[in-house]
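Our consortium's second objective concerns turning raw sequence data into structural hypotheses that experimental partners can test. To show how far this objective has progressed, the report includes one record in full. It was chosen at random from the queue rather than selected for favorable results. The single chain below, 148 residues long, was entered without modification.
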Amino acid sequence: MARSSMAIRSTKPEDFDGIVPLLRQLWPDRPLDLEAARNIFNRGLASDNRAYFCACRGDTIIGTCTIIIRDCLWLQGDVGYICDLVVDQDHRGSGVGTALVEKAVEFARQRKCPQVELDSGFHRTAAHQFYEKRGFEKRAFLFSRVIE
């Protein structure tokens, strides 16, 4: 069976339900508060400093990417930060992730960002190889603290 061609486009409000299964693949052991996620999604769609993209084959969303533009004193400018990037497990290795990353990089370039950053869990070694093949380099650890 031939697959339809893939398209990368800006995400629309009605895409949320198609993105949820991808988020569940990214975090399979983490409960997903749909109301909270929808609120964040809607807030992001309304923001000038955030962009959501999705990869589609026909009417099916097979990948999604979120990028935020944030101030960075160290760079004396803005930096693009990829928050979420997930490709449906049945479509990995077919260029979807690369197309989404390049769309996010282009968004950051248009915003005059000198670089794009992201973080990736230690255990996601295949993702690390994916990012390195696309020009990203390991240069820091991410530290986080739960606030109770």
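The partners drew two points from this record. The chain has a mean pLDDT of 92. Residues 96-110 form the longest helix (15 residues). Both points have been shared with the crystallography group to help prioritize constructs.
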